Amino acid sequence: MNGASDSESETAVNDSLWLELSMDGRAQAFELYADETRAVAVGSLPRADFRIDRPGVAPVQFHIEREGGELWIVPAYSSHELRVDTARIAGPRRIERRAMIEFCGVRMEARLLDPGPVVTRTSSARLSSDDRDQPKRSSASRVFEQHECGLPERTGSVVPNGDGALPTVAIEKLVSPSVSIPEQPTTHFAPFAGSVVIPVQRTVIIEALRVIPLTSDSEGDKALPTFKADEASVGPIETTEHTGSVNNALAQEMSQVASSWMTELQSERDGQLVQPPADTATTTYFEPFRISSAPFPVGLVTAMQSTTDSDAMCVRAGELEPQGWFEQLGQLSKQRPWLVWLAGTSTMFALAASIALLSKHHQRRAEVTVRHSAPTITTALPVAKAADRAAIRSTEPIIVIPAVPVVAAGSPKKGQARKPELVAAVNDLISGRYSDAQAAYATLAAQSPDDPSLLALAQLLAKKLRPQCSSPAPISNISCPEVKR
Amino acid sequence: MNRTMIISAIALVGLGDAGCSGTTPQPDRSRFAIEFRVTDDDHDALASTAITVGKQRLGTTGPGGVLKSDLSGAEGQSLPILIECPNGFTGPDRPAQLRLTHTRRVNVIGYQPMHYEAVCRRNVRDIVLAVRAQGGAGLPLEIDGKLAGVTDADGIAHVLVHADRNLKSLTVSLDTSARQELKPKNPTRTYELAGNDTVLVFDQPLVATHKPVLHGGGTKLRKHIPYRVD
Predict the structure, then answer these.
(1) Is B8 inside a domain boundary?
(2) pLDDT reading at A127 higher than 90
(3) A88-102 as b/e, with b when 16 or more CB fall inside 10 Å?
(4) pLDDT at residue B185 above 60?
């Protein structure tokens, strides 16, 4: 049982995996080799394996790579906008048979297909067991963290795989550029495939490598090889066997170039603009991303390849993440300051003109209101006679209060005559004995005709005592006097 | 003989018709006798009140406040009546409607006249203020802030005020500023008026308080310290 499962797992590990990415009715299948040397990059980059040309999508949003018999999705730039099966991920995540990937408003499906047709592999390089035991990390992290690379320390050997397959170059160990290369002037290569498309492990920057034929005109240890960049060699794999060697000086130069690449990559990670090295057009170097002591394919990068890499790396860090309108405006102001200045000036002019028009319109409305209201005021006050004006002015109710001599006011004079009848009349009035009060006031009014108040009070009391006013329901047409206290 | 009988029969018929028409005279149904009576709000007769019915001015009331006239029209016809009160009086706000109707008593032959009564209200009303301020002799009496009288030795005062009928309220106060010992100070009362003649009673007793006696020439009052008597 265990043997069967082991064989199955071994088969799964050894066979290629087919990944299908589908989005909006578009599906594309990718073969991921058993040697884990290929990754599927997804993004807006024109050379991305699965290109998504939509605003907001990063040049490389993520990539999918193989680790053993499993597929892992690795977000680029630690993007926080990537969701797998509705779960937001910030690091590598294993993909099951099917996964729904969402980012930047894009929804795509990744599906692990059944084992497909057998494809002739161009290389049989595999990771060593030590490498498999390492914790899972993204290729980018490997790039940024493991920058020790260099030429093989000792002679490697290329072993033909037979069946017309390409040979495998076994290099056990790489050395750091900073480490001095020991006295081993010559790196000897066994018979080597002339034109090999080396399937390196893809990263977010390097898409593919192209290798020029490595030819040598001599077999001696100290002989310098002759490199020829043959563009026509890209294509069918040539099985011509060659042997060659690289001397120490060339290896050191290659190490320096690789080191410079690593420095630039580090700068790119820090958000700086990375320019391709000036010597990439003329210098060949090793692919620096494969850091392993395991056998790995050796290739030399052509100048054209380096240009491609620089295109991939010439991406500002600001472009890797979605930008706000303010940042975009700032970027635009740097690129085209005259356009931004023109737009800003136009906006200010338009705003000032709008404010002026609004204020003028408001003022005009006020003037119109005043014009319209003026005749109304004029007609509301018709021409009146002098007497009428006086009557109009006296809007308050008329009240006539008898004038009282000022000398009368003040402290009571001594010896002033008292009137007990008047006191009695007032007492009757206050007590509610109106008939007695009326009689008393009538008597007093007769005695003092110069006091109209007494007579008026007597008359009012007489009116109040009338049957029409004394009845519970007085006649409505009759005005009955009231007594208020 | 026959001729004599025919003539006598015709004569009898003619006499009969003449007798019937003479006992029951038909009144003129297009004529309506009307009697106007105008009084004031005291129910007293008001003369010199002009009355207009429709577009026809009938005349003015006499000393008894009565105006008799005849109107021509149809039974059930409505006519507007305009009452123009004399100066100092105000008539109805809206013109009234007069409906022409014939009425008569059972035992009286002919129609009886129509009666219409109108009231003109006085524009100025009489307000008598009776003040009794016990202990407040010789205090100025103010009405709406104006000096209207002075209380006598018994603190009694009477004031007659002629006010417009639209006056809503009246404020009466006694000015005690000249006599600080009287309490309360400047008693005031406001009366709400309803448009009729009114008798206002202002009964406000006043108490004279003695000035505090200061001992020892100090400015502070001696503190009262209670002590036990037993």
Answers:
(1) no
(2) no
(3) ebeebbebeeebebb
(4) yes
Residues from chain B that touch A469, judged by Cβ atoms under 8 A, are none
**A248-269 vs A303-313: helix crossing angle, rounded to 10:** 20
Based on the domain organization, do B140 and B164 belong to the same domain? yes
Distance between B32 CA and the closest CA of chain A, angstroms: 26
Just give the CATH number of A2-113: 2.60.200.20
pLDDT in tens, A29-87: 888 888 777 889 988 888 888 888 888 888 888 888 888 888 888 888 756 678 888 88
| Mean pLDDT in residue range B92-113 | 82
State how many domains chain B has.
2
Nearest neighbour of A482 by CB, restricted to B150, B158, B194: B194
Full domain range(s) for residue B48: 28-122
> CA of B108, closest CA in chain A: separation in Å?
31
Which residues, listed in sequence order, are joined to residue B51 by a DSSP beta bridge?
B59, B83
Confidence of residue A347 (pLDDT cuts 50, 70, 90): very high
Asked whether the predicted pLDDT for residue A94 surpasses 90, the reply is no
CB contact under 8 A, B128 and A460: yes
CATH 2.60.200.20 residue ranges of chain A are 2-113
Among A194, A146, A137, A185, residue whose Cα is nearest residue A167: A194
**Is this prediction's pTM over 0.90?**
no
Per-window interface: B 51-70 vs A, CB < 8 A:
none
- Give me the amino acid identity at A406: V
Q: Quick one: B153 and B104 in the same domain?
A: no
A166 CB neighbour count, 10 Å cutoff: 25
Using an 8 Å CB-CB cutoff, list chain B residues near A427.
132
B167: which chain A residues are within 8 Å (Cβ-Cβ)?
A: 397, 399
For residue A410, give the chain B residue with the closest CA.
Answer: B138
